[in-house]
Amino acid sequence: MIHRFQWHFPSDHPALAGHFAGQPIAPGEQLQAVEQDGAGRIAGTPGVNWSIKSAKFLQTVRPGDALDFSVQAAETGGFDFRIERGGSLIARGLIVASDARL
Known about the structure:
By secondary structure, the chain is an alpha+beta fold. Helix content is 17%, strand content 41%. The chain has one domain (2-14, 24-98): Roll (Thiol Ester Dehydrase, Chain A), CATH 3.10.129. The N and C termini lie far apart (30 Å).
């Protein structure tokens, strides 16, 4: 099953303060959305900490962009994710459950 959700990257997001003045990008915010919204919803396991095992960014995301996320169980464990903007692939990767003690 593929879980889909959308996220709008707010132009006034606090992570942008001091970030590449005039050309702000914040890939960490996209990954945080995957960790919090994607894997958490699809796994249905409250209290599990998630971490990005791999991520490949193919394009930049700018404040104000609307992003489409898809997350699905990976054959090797964890969840594969894709981030798209208007049907164009922005990023892809793998998210896995992590030990909270790490």
